[in-house]
Structure formats: structure tokens, C-alpha cells
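Example record used in the benchmark description.
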Amino acid sequence: MAASLVAASRRADERREELLALAERLAREYRDMPAGGVLRCVSRAVHLARVGNPTPDELPVRAEQLARLLIEQRREPWEPASHRAPDQLSQGA
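Model output (C-alpha cells):
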């Protein structure tokens, strides 16, 4: 039983290392973005990937796919929900 716990712990450490390497790789790849924004996207992607209950081998792959999608969405220009002029907003129109 102790051997299986050690093996499980070792696998968890390997997955953690893979996810850290993913974050580092994407931060280097997307140098034009602030590193904090890239890391936030990676963190969100890992969380979303875990919600789907993937196998340990699927987690890094799925997290990378989601992180790339989130980063690309973050790079797109922001468009406000309302196209009213600022003076109209302050008047409550």
C-alpha cells in the first residue's frame, strides 16, 4: 500500500512539473503580453480542464488547449457592450 502511495505522489509531482513547464513555455511564447495575464489564463485553463475530470495524462494536453484559447481571446481588442458616448453614460441615458 505504501508503494502505491509513493507512486501516486510521484505521478502527481510529474503532472505538476508538466503544468509548470506549460506555464513557462506559454509565458515565453506570448512575450508580447504581460506574464501575469498569461499565467492567469493558464491557471483558469487548468481549473477548467480539471472540472472535466480528465485522466492524469489528458490534463496537461487539455489545459494547454484551453490556455491557448483563453490567451487568444485576451489578445483580441476589447469592445464595450454599450456604444453610447461617455457623456450619455454619465447622464444615465
